Amino acid sequence: MSPTFEIPVFSAAAATVAVSHGATRLEINRAGSYVAGGLTPTLEEVQAIAEDVSVPLRVMIRPRGPPSGEPDFMYSDSEFQQMRRELDASVASGLLQAERGDGFVFGILKRDGPDRLSIDVDRNRQLVEAAGPYACVFHRAFDLILGDVAAEEEGPERALGTLRDCGFTGVLTAGGPGSHGAVDHAHSLQKLAMAAGAVDAKNRGIEIIVGGGLRSSNVGALAGQILAGSSKALQDAVSFHSSCLLDSAAAVAQGAEGEGVSAEEVDRISRVLASL
Questions:
Q1: Which family does it belong to (predicted)?
Q2: Is the CB of residue 95 less than 8 Å from the CB of residue 47?
Q3: Which pairing describes strands 135-138 and 117-119: parallel, antiparallel, or unpaired?
Q4: pLDDT tens string 125-158
Q5: Are the C-beta atoms of residues 260 and 15 closer than 8 Å to each other?
Q6: CA nearest neighbour of 117 among 147, 153, 76
């Protein structure tokens, strides 16, 4: 069975293209928010997608993009309350199906000293608990943490354990910080996958969703490095996330300028993952 192939989408039209060409899960974001890294969609946007597809849906809960000159994923009390309201509204809407694997994507950090960030356990746990039966995935905020703990013995594994303790079922990560994405962190991703594939004392695993610069030209080699010599448990713990964006002209024709999904690229990645 192929690994889960997740695509972030910013319109119902893009969602339809993604699923019809091989996406097996969708991350739903507000239209026009790609440049901000994805923001909370409206309930109308979630409904338009939920009515037309049958794959699991993950709704982004993110009030804003990165602030100028400050680390991302740290939020004021009012921003946190906004996140809570948006999550509560999605849960109450009845648009999501826990049995389908639907859920949410979010991540909150806090300062742990002047030059160090850590996972905000209290706030993240509050949101996970509010999500009830729905799956919760920690956003790429995790990559900022990995930059701080990489040199520590079992630091990344401990950070992964913190997410488990918060109740997260998955984490979206490139394996570390930097602008080049997952291809620069294959070894780190392999270690994280091995840690994720081994359940803890409470029989809790966590899914590693590999994202950041994935293309049909590199996903095969990267997946091969991460999954080399792996067990089925490890393979089941790893998924892949790619935006598969169209060029701007084709995106306009799809009605989502700068945020359209390339059917050809989805096809190519689907075939690569099916061959693993």
A1: Belongs to the CutC family.
A2: yes
A3: unpaired
A4: 999 999 999 999 999 999 999 887 766 777 888 9
A5: no
A6: 147
Residue reference for tokens 């390339």: 262
> How many domains, the chain?
1
Tell me what pLDDT residue 199 has: 53
Can you give the length of the chain in residues? 276
Rounded to whole angstroms, the Cα distance separating 72 from 37 reads 10
pLDDT score for 177: 86
For 147, the domain range is 5-274
Q: Which two tokens stand for residue 261?
A: 């999904």
DSSP state of 261: B
Distances (CA, A) of 122 to 47, 129, 138: 30, 11, 14
CATH number at residue 62: 3.20.20.380
Task: Give the torsion sign (CA, 252, 47, 101, 76).
Answer: positive
CB 207 within 8 A of CB 239: yes
HSE on the CB side for 201, CA within 13 Å?
1
Four-CA torsion 161, 167, 170, 175, nearest 10 degrees: -30
For 65-95, give one letter per residue: b (16+ CB within 10 A) or e. eeeeeeebbbbeeeebebbeebbeebbeeeb
What count of other Cβ atoms lies within 10 Å of the Cβ of residue 202? 7
Mapped onto helix, strand or coil, the DSSP state of residue 245 is strand
Are 106 and 129 in contact by the 8 Å Cβ rule? The answer is no
* Percent of the chain topping pLDDT 90: 72
Q: Dump pLDDT digits (tens) for 119-134.
A: 999 999 999 999 999 9
Residue 180 has pLDDT above 60, yes or no: yes
What 3-state DSSP class applies to 164? Answer: helix
